[in-house]
Design a protein that fits this description.
Distance between the termini: 22 Å
Order of helices and strands: EHEEEEHEEHE
Shape: globular
Radius of gyration: 16 Å
């Protein structure tokens, strides 16, 4: 009988932003999907891919989300509400299907965050979603790479108490 591989959650891959590397692809940790039915999407990912345990946060007005780790990759499912930013309403599939919306990247610290933002601005990338919450400890930006990649690139920088934001996301 073949042995089944055991998986454990590990720290997300993060690397410094540099002018010589491909900084817009450093630190991949998340695949973000959109759906019109959060429950059906979770059931589908469970049935088809074995992702059965999620942390669910419901906010029907803005957006409801389900998060899970599959190995070291976080899976995020977003059901946008009427008050969600327009980027979340683009290309939402129906019937509980999921569609890749963005890839999420972790930036390791504020110094590298500042370098990334400077590069994004220097290169003229559109950023339809950008901000900070948790008293600035969670910084985020969506870069519009739709024309090039068909999806957005999301970057986050977690400091202080935000470093524990995903501690309760279950591993599958």
């Amino acid at each position: 009988m073949p042995l089944l591989a055991e998986f454990r959650t590990i720290a997300p891959r993060m690397s410094a932003i540099s002018d010589t590397a491909a900084p817009l692809f450093n630190g991949l940790y998340q695949m973000g999907f959109v759906t019109d039915d959060l429950d059906a999407a979770q059931e589908r990912l469970g049935r088809r891919f074995g992702i059965t345990r999620f942390r669910v946060k419901l906010d029907p007005e803005r957006m409801s989300t389900a998060h899970a780790f599959a190995g070291d990759m976080m899976v995020e499912i977003i059901k946008p509400g009427p008050a969600a930013n327009a980027v979340y309403h683009e290309n939402v599939p129906t019937g509980g299907a999921v569609r890749l919306h963005h890839l999420g990247y972790r930036v390791p610290d504020v110094e590298n965050w500042d370098r990334l933002i400077a590069q994004i601005e220097r290169e003229g990338w559109a950023t339809p979603v950008r901000g900070a919450v948790m008293e600035g400890h969670l910084r985020f930006v969506y870069v519009d790479t739709l024309a090039d990649l068909g999806i957005y690139q999301e970057y986050v920088c977690l400091t202080g108490p935000a470093m524990h934001l995903y501690d309760d996301v279950p591993a599958n």
